[in-house]
Every structure is written in C-alpha cells, then in structure tokens.
Amino acid sequence: MTKSYIIDSISQAHQSMGLPKPKHPLVSIVKTKDYRPVIDFRGLKVVNNLFQVTLKQLGCGNLTYGKNSYDYEDGTLVFTSPGQITIFEGEIPSESETTDGWTLAFHPDLIRKSKLADKMSQYSFFNYEVNEALHLSDDERKTIEDLLDKIEKEYSQNLDKHSQNLIISNIELLLDYCTRFYDRQFYTRTNLNSDVVSKFERLLRSYYDSAEVQDLGMPTVSYCAKELGLSSNYLSDLLKKETGKSAQEHIHLRIIDKAKNSLLNSSNSVSEIGYSLGFEYPQHFSNLFKSKTGVSPREFRNLN
After folding, report:
1. Using one digit for the tens of pLDDT, what is the confidence trace for 209-223?
2. Phi then psi for 104, rounded to 5 degrees?
3. Which tens digits make up the pLDDT trace of 62-118?
4. Backbone conformation region of residue 83, classed left if phi is above 0, alpha if psi is from -120 to 50, else beta
C-alpha cells in the first residue's frame, strides 16, 4: 500500500523541505533550488491541504498527478488546491542541477474572510491535470514574478493593518493574469482544441449509438473527460472557449436532439424514451426537455 504524507500548514511544508521557518504562517514563496528535503517523497502519496502555484523547470523530476505523468522539460505553471494528491517519481535533484522554479503556497485561512475566497471556484485551473499546465512566455513569467516579489515583500516586512489585504490583492491579481494567459493558450492551440471538440462530439454520438447508455446511464462530463484523457474542468473550459458552450451543455444538446428524433419518429412513450436516453426517472427527462425547449416532450410531439 502506498504511504501517505499530509501537509496541513505552511510551517509543516517548510519543515518537510528543509527550509527555515516561514516569515508568515499562512503564505510563503520558496525557490526550488533552496529545497533540502528531509523526507524522501519518492513514491509517497502527498496530500497537500494548501493552495499552490508552482513553476516547474528542469531538474524537478516527474510527477504523477491523477492518471497522467509529466516530465517538465519546459517551464510550466501548475496549480493545486487543498486535498489534491500528488506522487513524486524519479531522483531528487542535486544542488548542481538546474531547478530554476518556485512555489507560491497559501493556506485557505489566509483568504477565508476575503472576497477572493468566494472567487476561487472561478479559477478552474486549480483542478486541471498536470499535463494541462500553463506554459508561460518570458513576458508572462515576468508579470507573474513581479507580483510574487510584491507578495514576498509584504509578508517579509513588519506586518500592519494593510498587509493582509495587499497580500491577498496581489494573489488575486496573479490568478487573474493566469486566467488571461490560459485564454491565450487556448487561443494559440485552436487546431489542437478543434480536434478535441471533434473527438468529444464523436464520443457522444458513439455513446448513444451503442449499448453503453443502457448500462451506464446518461453520459457525464467526468466520463467524457476520462475517455478523452482530460480533466473535467479543462474539457469544459476548452469547449467553452471554442464553442461558447460547456461540456454539460453539449451533453444536454445531444440528449435533446436524440429525444426530438425519438418523439417524432417512434411511438414509444415519453417514459420509454427517457429510459432509452439514460434517465433513471422519466420526470427528470421531462424537466430537462422542457427547460431546454420551452415545452414538455408530450407537447412537442403533439405540436409536430
């Protein structure tokens, strides 16, 4: 059985990596080259209960995150939220190796009473897989690291009544820039994204052309994402950028399209059609159909 190691605080994170005591109990920025791990993390299942934004560079080894592995041959920005599990693989980098990276870590308590706490769910990239990381240009990296300098300066000096707000404001600004940079990444990968959209549409078609719907029920976003080798959040964000509709909206559109065909081209009852589309309860099918078309399945059939 894989052993687990749980990190619940900034102090504990510093201690496990052989770093000095943190200057602030709830937020810290550390350079990868300063790591001197006192724990062998290789093969450990690390449960990190902090928010982390990490720039990975050469010499950082491999990570298995979810079901994917990533080797970080290029500098990339990875986001993790509390409760996520990471497994480190490979050799621990030596002092002579290039590890020009860093980590911004902050405890949920830092932002708990701020507007940022409510806004965190908007930063869906905290739930992306590692292979969906953000690749920064030199200018983008400079923008992010300028904000890191401001955060570090704030918590390193004597704290006053403004310190907390300024630290949080700069973290929020950093995450907003990351949202912009991800939008750029989606845009510059249009051809690749279009291929994903096509695969997603084919997946939905084949799902309803097979017997899977009878065994598994209505397709879920997580099922589709897994079949495509993506995280649910990344798939939805990609589809939203490319088509203006989320993965869930695409699934619903496919269901409504199939339902319309069945209502007009078969004598099956509304309940039978609902069951054939993967609904456990016919009323759920009727409610979805009406919410998307403005009429009930029975009314649609009678009108046409």
Report:
1. 887 787 888 999 999
2. -100, 120
3. 444 444 444 334 468 999 999 988 776 655 555 444 467 899 999 999 999 999 999
4. left
For residue 257, count other CB atoms closer than 10 A to its CB: 12
Residue linked to tokens 């994903």 = 196
Query: Which CATH number characterizes residue 87's domain?
Result: 2.60.120.280
Q: Give me the count of residues in the chain.
A: 304
Quickly count: other Cβ atoms within 10 Å of residue 290's Cβ: 15
3-class DSSP state of 82: coil
Nearest to 155 by CA among 147, 146, 164: 164
Q: Which of 141, 163, 188 is the last residue of a domain?
A: 188
What are the structure tokens assigned to 275, written together? 């069951």
**How many structural domains is the chain composed of?**
2
207: left (phi over 0), alpha (psi -120 to 50) or beta: alpha
More confident residue, 99 or 10: 10
Cα separation, 243 vs 26, whole angstroms: 39
| 183 and 260 within one domain | no
pLDDT tens digits, one per residue of 119-173: 999 999 999 987 788 988 889 999 999 999 999 999 999 889 999 999 999 999 9
Q: In angstroms, rounded to a whole number, what is the distance separating the alpha carbons of residues 293 and 259?
A: 11
